Amino acid sequence: MAAKRRSVLDSIKLKEFQQPINCCNITSLAYAFSVVGKSISVNDVFHMARLPGDFVVLDGMTLAETHNAAVEVAAQLGDVFVETYHFDEELVDYEAFEHAILSDTGDTDDQLILNFSVKIAHQRTSGGGHFALVGDAEHGDDGELIITMCDVHPMKYGKVWQCSARNMFDAMVDKDSDANRSRGLIRVGRQSASHGIPGLERARKAVSYCDPAFDQARQAWLARFGSLPADSFQMVMNLGGVTASALAITGLTGSKPNEVCLPDDIMRVLRLDYTQHLTDLLQPSEVEQLLSDYAEKAELGISTETVAVGSNASEFLTMLSTRVVFPDNKEQKNGSVVLLLFDLNTAMGVPLIEVDPESEAARLSHFSIHWAVVVGVRPEENRVTIADPRSKITTRLWEAAIDDLWLAINQVDHPEAVCVSKAFSQ
Q: Are 125 and 117 in contact (CB under 8 A)?
């Protein structure tokens, strides 16, 4: 084993972590942040990320939910970053993973946390999802790449164990049944470390609102939509238009970390028909109307407007660049976002939402047609940042290429956008 990698492995092994029950996810976060010089405990993660105990323990946390918690911790620690890669089989290949593992076990500027199926990684007959840290990787005598893992549950798995990179890759591509999405990895790094893992770019859609690459004004704006109570805006089934509206209102009007507009707040204040909204897919004009009505009744001081999306991807990007703005402590005093109805599977490039045609819900499901909120635009890179009410699957904030999002909105009839704006005092 190379001396440099030995020092990395020794550094990890010096940390003492035994997860509490069903807490492999946040124990891995505490472990990883400690490795890169930010010594914290599992208890610190609970408090810093404002995680309810039952949220973590009862069902565990998906990779997306663990990313959301990691971002909350990183924002408070400072000088660190978080990157998350979902290993959706359409977006990754084994060779890229092998290269990433070999190139990322050479120093203590960053640390990889893998989320994987125990059954596949350990070649057992049973086992669910788990999180553990990469300690080392090197080729065996037969040329097969072997990964040394440092576990957060040494009582069950031992502090250190090994498996083939091929088995681990397959275990990460395996879908978490709680989200119906592949697992993957989280990379925690010092601010000085290089960003991104070459070869895995397509798998990195998750956005961290505290990314050091963003200026302070952008970080503060994205935090309004990304720093939310852990159990809010997790999943939505058919109440998509109302839920995305609540998310937009929360970001535009909330002034405290736990100040959240819930979808049920809108339903009850406006006395909306649950049966109708659980059945019908709201169109842009209907979402604009309910936003306007709720804003008036709740005296929110926001304005709403339905706008055209353009006739091609370039015009669509121009519209978003004009309509999605945030206070910059300079000339810009307003903040505005755009709600879009689109096909989530097309935008992601992955079949995230799949409904069994034989299931009871099939005839009533809206399938992958999805409401979400565009909260950031980077026109020079042809990319947009989306705040999503399905953060259990997508992460709170994720990025889409404008061409993919253009294709996605054209999966619905007569696409339009809903712009919601608010004036902020400086």
A: no
